[in-house]
Design goal:
The protein contains 20 helices and no strands. The protein has helices at about 1-35, 45-60, 65-75, 100-105, 115-140, 145-160, 160-170, 170-185, 190-200, 205-220, 225-245, 250-265, 270-275, 280-300, 305-325, 335-345, 345-350, 355-380, 385-390, 400-425.
Length: about 425
Amino acid sequence: MARVGFRLLLAFLMFTAMWIYVQRVLIPHQGNEGVIRQIPRGNLSDLYPRWLGARELLLHHRDPYRADITREIQVGYYGRPLDPGRPNDPRDQQAFAYPVYVVLLLAPTVTLPFATVHRLSFWIFLSLTVISIPLWMQTLRWRVSKISLAIWVLLTLSCFPAIQALKLQQLTILVAALVAGSTTALVHRRYVLAGILLAIATIKPQLVILVFVCALIWVFGAWRERQRFFWSFAITSCVLVLAGQFLLPGWITEFRGAMRSYSDYTGGGNLLLDLLPSPLGQIASVSVVAVLLVLAWRNRHADQESLAFQWLLCTALATTLLVIRFSPYNELLLLPAAMIALRAGEQIWRSSPVSRFLFSIAAVSILWPYIAAACLVLALALLPAWRVQNSWELPFYATFAVPVIVYGLLFASKNVLVNSDHKASQ
């Protein structure tokens, strides 16, 4: 009991240190940089472009993809329109680059002042983050004590991807919760609900496309039983697309144009392209997707309660992080992979030297931001704030490595999980 209490206390201290670091080191540094380099800073809410686009479409029948709406978004997001003549102005235009049916989710908020929406959304997104934790555990069929669940909540809410997503009010939080709900529904054979939730999650299609493709292949493994998932997803998607067409005829063409523009001004690419030289990055990107599809086909007959199915879902999410444009907040999708690895940690550690190495590196990479943040918080008591703020990047040294290491760890642990699954079923 004492060890459990110590872990809870340690998790609380890590939670406190990370949030103090963000509030006292990272944000002041960014503010100072903004002043020195004349970088515009408005509300910096990623929800704002979607909210303003929804308000203008639903209340004033204006096309949210148009350039004049983009300029209005920039005034709220950055504080002024971006100026191509200023070298330090951000490249991200903050245009409305979502499927238009995202406005259906935001419709209840369009008559409210954004200041109110801003406050409410923080607590809603925080609640969704907390709710997703037991949902992922249900997907993985992992039962933990209330204290262990509290530790997971504290560590999740204080990991930098979650903090960044909460601060930016990123819809990744909503998508992650929807995917967690969908996979939990699949495990409980509630196929219709699973399809509906995953279809709604397509407000960020790049985050769910590989999960859907793997789920679709899995459905074909037992079509008679699982087909309701496919039909509920298809029908819900059609309803969303047609609703968008009713609100804004021709929106699909405009959305495609917005996505091309987004890729142009953000530089496109993905994590593998950033880490590997051309053409190795392209080859690696295609290869990891191809490997995932082969694995999905091989596991299409897996029961939804099996570790093989759980491993496939975690691998689909980890692969997604490798082949989309890298943003730290998207690492929230690695939460179930961290859970499944930790649950099988002792078996992974005993399996092979490679597994032990990857497990160790993954643990260090995930824990490093907490350790670095704690060191910087302690330094605030001894050094001038500006000197500590100059070391703001310390917790981010392992950020780019986490998705790659977790992906490797999943493959290193595959045989361990499958073997333990077979032993449990005997």
